[in-house]
Amino acid sequence: MSKIKGNKINRQKLDWLLSQSLDIQLEIATQHLEIIRIVINSILEGLVSNYTGEKYQRNGSEEGRYQRWGFNPGSVKIGGQRIKVDVPRVHDKLENKSQKLEGYESLKNIPEQDVTLMKQVLHGISTRDYKAVIDRLHDSFGDSAASVSRQFQERSKNALEEFEAKRFEDTNYLALFIDGKYMASDQMVIVLGVTDQGKKVPLGIVQTSTENSISIGNLLRDLVDRGLKFEDGLLCVIDGAKGLKKAVIDVFGDAAIIQRCQWHKRENVISYLSQDKKEVYRRRLQKAYNQDTYDEAKKELVLIHEDLQKINRGAAKSLQEGLEETLTLHRLGLFHIFGRSFKTTNCIESLNSGLRKYIGRVTNWSSSDMRYRWICCALMDLEPRLYRVCHHKKLPQMAAALKRELDAKVAKRTS
């Protein structure tokens, strides 16, 4: 595939892009193929529903004869670019064999020479006209644009309802990462849970103008109502926003054991400093936080605080604020095991980065419902690809430490 210098791309307009060879267009468009994958997944779900009926219902073409039967790996070619997809399987109970999805073959065999298709897809993406993308794809697949638009909206609506109704009684969660992602003028705050098996699971989302305690608190209470357990302590990793802290304390009380993001704290501190001192103190703070024990880390941070008092009072005050919460893992004796995964909000930042593949170029959110549906679909698609936290087999040590910390807090409060 041809390579193009970044500065050349930066200087060209859309008409230049559409005049390039297909290979070059694909090179530029690769990051947008996830949008196409979502549309294809919606089509495949429609094909399956024709046989089995809607998921969890029995209203197919011959009630009871066909059933969903997992997935097979597959792919679809668009203009010569292969997109991997999970192809649903349908089992014919009457014939005791797999039922062929006829429409899938037409998806697989879109002619490579159909350059017009790829150009129109590119045009829709580049101009942020996602309806044009969907319309053109479904014209090629033999489906009407109106039908596709309705299908996509219906599928994403069902996905959102499923996401917001999910129960948690059968899963033990040890930690929550809570962070917000800006979409136009509002934030979508996401809660990412970590199970006692180390799996990362998106649990909930809420739209809010700021990271305020009321809306986030309502989201957390909804998770509790759906079975989220926290009676033995819950590590809450947050960036230091006051609204987030207040929400977790209001909802979880003593069980909320807060780990402030060390990266956010470090960057907040050095933001007060002149350019010539930023890197010096960035390295010093990083070295302090990388100490294995609480005493070693606290000793170095105290020395840094004393030096900052001499050169910038604001930076010193920033370091002091919430300092103990940045050392929670150290104090619990867990940093040397779990520091890599839990000392910062990187886990959820990584999730937010994945979301950009789906929604990064959407600037016109026509409704709140659209925001929720798109993010929900993206989260559900990303979840199976999230890695477990580091040293997940040692998580029983975290569970025990959180329980001890909670017992100590309750004993101190009641003494």
How does this structure look, described?
The strands form two sheets. This protein has a five-stranded mixed β-sheet, with helices on both faces. Strands 1-2-3 form a three-stranded antiparallel β-sheet. It folds into two domains: 6-163, no CATH class; 170-414. It has 20 helices and eight strands. It starts with 5 loop residues before the first helix and ends with a helix. The protein is of the alpha/beta class and 415 residues long.
Brief digest:
This protein is of the alpha/beta class.
List the helices and strands and how they pair.
Layout: H1 6-10, H2 14-18, H3 22-29, H4 33-52, E1 66-78, E2 81-92, E3 97-99, H5 102-108, H6 115-126, H7 130-140, H8 145-165, E4 173-183, E5 186-195, E6 200-208, H9 213-225, E7 234-238, H10 242-252, E8 256-260, H11 262-270, H12 275-289, H13 294-311, H14 313-320, H15 323-326, H16 328-331, H17 335-342, H18 346-359, H19 368-382, H20 395-414
Parallel strand pairs: 4-7, 7-8
Antiparallel strand pairs: 1-2, 2-3, 4-5, 5-6
Helix pairs in contact: 3-6, 4-8, 6-7, 7-8, 8-19, 9-10, 11-12, 11-14, 12-13, 13-14, 18-19
